[in-house]
Write a structure and sequence with these properties.
Elements (H helix, E strand, L loop, with lengths): L15 H17 L1 H14 L13
Helix pairs in contact: 1-2
Amino acid sequence: MLAEVPDDVPDQLPSAAYIYAKKIGRLTEALNRTEDRAEAADAIRSVSEKIELRPAQAVA
């Protein structure tokens, strides 16, 4: 299927990074407001199955 896609078609919207950054900024603001925190946390839970944090491995 990818072979049929023309080379000049971008893989993503040109403004995707801007839109993502703006949404993350609004989410951060909502998480910092006590009255909006629960709703913001629910929004995160609705789009992610799990969040896994792992410590970085030491580089020798």
